[in-house]
């Protein structure tokens, strides 16, 4: 698939019904899940999109792109409920065809409007009743076991809103990983959190059995960070670099990743230079186009628009070339967003 098409679809979305989708939630995604040309693709479901699906292929207006596309089918585990009455779908969601994803703690200490990441809606899905505030390790283990058994899930992503304690959520993630792996031995699990105050927590997460970790900075530009992630910007990029270095030491090269959002106003050359620095450290820069998501401050207050597809394509292709030169692929992360790849065009560009 041409990278330009993949990026264009990621930004302009598709006119299609997709039974597997997430609306709101942590981070910068509000998408339906499709299999596009054999790869997972999380794309906006937009009735105004010029892309549609006919006869199992992607059409641009009246032109058949020839690319096969199928919506991911609703998983069977969504029909189940825990013994204490919580629908499994409120505990973890299917991403792509084979990723189980959960936000273990659905609240964030940085959710006051002055601190909140402007692209994030982590607590909105809670207010909408689509999820529960805190998932217990036992609930996660129960859902993971069913998702693997009934729906062939092959990996799990555990993220968390940032908690008040100095571990930044690592403690509850470690407990959750242990419980899931006791129920499903060998399931690759990626954890995601901010840099904990005591970096020894990263070793704890590895010891709990996590296969990979995402420590997401979103942008390496301090000015962009102050504007888009004012709360997180209190933690300087230098502290992220210490956390990434320690994470690479304990998890290994290309088992650590970070999101870099393309389209926040950062200079594209600086974004690519920053990605090159991350790659040299052994950290996978997961380049994802910024998409304006309902319920976020970016949309509600700032009226932010998606970036030009051409900008995202150029950045994605340059970072993918750097990844190829370093012999790093997202798939080798083993688990997590870079291993899934549905929110990015990097995989389509060979990264
Ligand atoms: S890339 Fe991450 S957030 Fe996107 S669908 Fe895959 S697991 Fe979910």
TrEMBL record:
Keyword Iron: yes
Transmembrane segments: none
Pfam family, one: Radical_SAM
Gene3D superfamilies linked to this entry: Aldolase class I
UniProt keyword list: 4Fe-4S, Iron, Iron-sulfur, Metal-binding, S-adenosyl-L-methionine
CC cofactor: [4Fe-4S] cluster
GO MF annotation list: 4 iron, 4 sulfur cluster binding; 7,8-didemethyl-8-hydroxy-5-deazariboflavin synthase activity; metal ion binding
Matches recorded under SMART domains: Elp3
InterPro entries per record: Aldolase_TIM (IPR013785), Elp3/MiaA/NifB-like_rSAM (IPR006638), F420 (IPR034405), rSAM (IPR007197), rSAM_MSMEG0568 (IPR016779), rSAM_sf (IPR058240)
Protein name: Radical SAM protein (TIGR04043 family)
Record organism: Thermocatellispora tengchongensis
Record lineage: Bacteria, Bacillati, Actinomycetota, Actinomycetes, Streptosporangiales
